[in-house]
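Reviewers of the previous submission asked for a worked example of the structure-prediction workflow described in the proposal, so we include one complete record here. The input consisted solely of the amino acid sequence. No template or homolog information was supplied to the procedure at any stage.
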Amino acid sequence: MSDVGQIVLVLQGGGALGAYQAGVYQAMHEAGIEPDWVIGTSIGAINACLIAGAKPDDRVATLRAFWDRVAHDPVVEAAACFPFFGMSLPNWITLTSGVSNFFKPNPRAFLGPEVPLAADSAGYYSTQPLEATLSELVDFSLVNKCAPRLTVGAANVRTAEMRYFDSRDAPITVRHVMASGALPPAFPAVRIEGDLYWDGGILSNTPVEAVFDDKPRRNSLIFAVHIWNPDGQEPETITEVLNRQKDIQYCSRTVAQIRRQEQIHRLRHIVAELAARVPQEERDTPLIREMASYGCLTRMHVVRLLAPQLEGEDHTKDIDFSRAGIRARWEAGSGDARRIIRNAPWRGDVDPLAGFSLHECRPATEPMR
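From that input alone, the workflow returned the following structure tokens.
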């Protein structure tokens, strides 16, 4: 795989939907494709640190351990088998009691919206269980060896700016990962270096721009794993409206973002080609050198995997921590990734002027493009 440059795995935020990402990584691991760089927001940041914080042979098992710990108790699962309850009971229990080893209710927050809370406790739930879980499962000394490099995105509460915490630049701790997943108003902000941070998905739920904005830029094969559906049917019920609204909100304009990066990267290639045609004596002037510095001839392959809609899912799908739901999404992720790895579309030619190629892998019921 060295001919395509660095391998980058980009993971969206989306709660329980993140089990799909774990399946994608499993298929990559089985194919001998290990990422050099993992980037994530929210649940994507959690999956990313689980990968970066384990030895290669232990990574799938570490992901399994996390998802097993946050899955609903079998007793709750059994109750969901009754037609009267269905998945509404487990999801109701998630809302009222939290998720084991992930989050638990913050009683003071339920006393009323005007009840004063500490700035880093202002959320309906406490994520202390998640901090304990990640501290046990993740070896942060491995994370900070940058093999693979880890980047997690978080939103600065005060300035509304996106910040990417990067293990290449400074040590990553469990607090940085917690900040990336602090989705308000459910979860409280996390304070880092004096500033409060919320879930990075508020500003960019698909942080693929981190790869294109990186310096120095490198040839890359980017697996961008999307767990919210940009495409959908016209909704006809309130439940369908809520489901579609959530998909649109959190898919974070993924197609537009990728296409925009494609346009910018094409301009970088054009600048580089034009600079090469300038006579040498002019190329050495400060002005031309500065203009030429905007050019770039790196080649980017973006493999976009899109999680399927499961039968019967609705707007509560991101809190569906049922074992059946986790298993179905995990298997869908591994199946989709195996298909596109088998086809290896990045082996094809790239437009030399663009230096960018998008390969889409849709759910198994849809053809790859």
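The chain has a mean pLDDT of 90. We consider this example representative of the routine output the project will generate in years two and three.
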